[in-house]
Amino acid sequence: MSGTDKDPALLSHILECMKRIEENIAQGRDAFMASHTLQDAVIRNLQVLSESTQRLSPTIKATQPQIDWRAIAAFRNVLVHDYLGLDLEQIWSVIRSDLPPLKGALISMSGQRTA
Questions:
Q1: Active-site residue 13, yes or no?
Q2: What confidence score (pLDDT) does residue 4 get?
């Protein structure tokens, strides 16, 4: 199976990770900061999401050149390898600032419409 054949499944998977993150932060910043369980769930989904973006084909990534795909890969490396030094304020900032435009791009890439 080529990279482009995997793209629809990967896009769906990434969007599912985003949905889970949204569910886990629905109660807001204070609830996220107070709960190790929510933090662990969000960080895990960010790891999976970031790893999955690396597996998207170059062809489909090229349709969204405004997305910094390398930065997402670098963020994944921080999440996986620097877990003792994670800054929850930075994680929260990424969730609030960087995920919405990425979600829009992924929806566009997958041909879905926002609900």
A1: no
A2: 74
